[in-house]
Design goal:
Blueprint lengths: L1 H15 L5 H14 L10 H13 L5 H4 L3 E5 L7 H7 L4 E6 L2 H14 L4 E5 L5 H5 L4 E7 L4 H8 L3 E11 L4 H14 L5 E4 L10 E6 L14 H4 L4
Parallel strand pairs: 1-2, 1-4, 2-3, 4-5
Antiparallel strand pairs: 5-7, 6-7
Helix pairs in contact: 1-2, 1-3, 2-3, 2-5, 2-6, 3-5, 8-9
Amino acid sequence: MIAELGGRLAALAARHGLPSDAAERLERLLLALAREADPPTTVRDPGRAIDLHIADSLAALELDVVRAAGLVADLGAGAGFPGLPLAIALACARVELVESARRKCGVIDRLAEAAGVANARTVTARAEELASHAGRERYDLVTARALARLPVVVEYAAPLLAPGGALVVWRGARDEREERAGDAAAEEVGLSTGTVLRAEPFAGAHSRHLELFTKSAPTPDRFPRRAGIAAKRPLA
């Protein structure tokens, strides 16, 4: 299995033009996840996780704004995806994996250490509290995968993004109503309306999309609203 895994990771590294040591570090990440005693994900088998975690995370590298990012915030980081694979891929970037559960941050820290990911760190905070902890308009890129409804993610991300910065949201099947709600929220918080891009991170993948927003205007000071309000009362 290890030889097959290495071959698949080498192919992913070649597809995305990753650093020379990336495939080996991604393999260490997968094996550490498989050994993890307290994983916050049901997908642990390396044969599945290479597609559903690694390839899916790296799909964002198709976007120039992702490759150009210097400081990245991965909101609701969970088990460390997409933040850890992107940190391995983007050797010159710094990636902050934002997660409110200390237990999950502990898992991410262990996985990062096992894979030798020195340019990533965990931040134990709720997404809507990060601006008060880290400062407003600091990040070139904000990512979110399986975090919340689109208008909620848009509100979380907007105060964090520097002018011209980008939000990338991993989505499943397209939902026009959800997309319209995301666009309405984006207009209120200083982001462009979203651009939806089809993603095919691995053979047989279906109903996968990335939604891209850019910071086009200042975010009003009233955002983000206090913890929990965005989810309870979305902007759209």
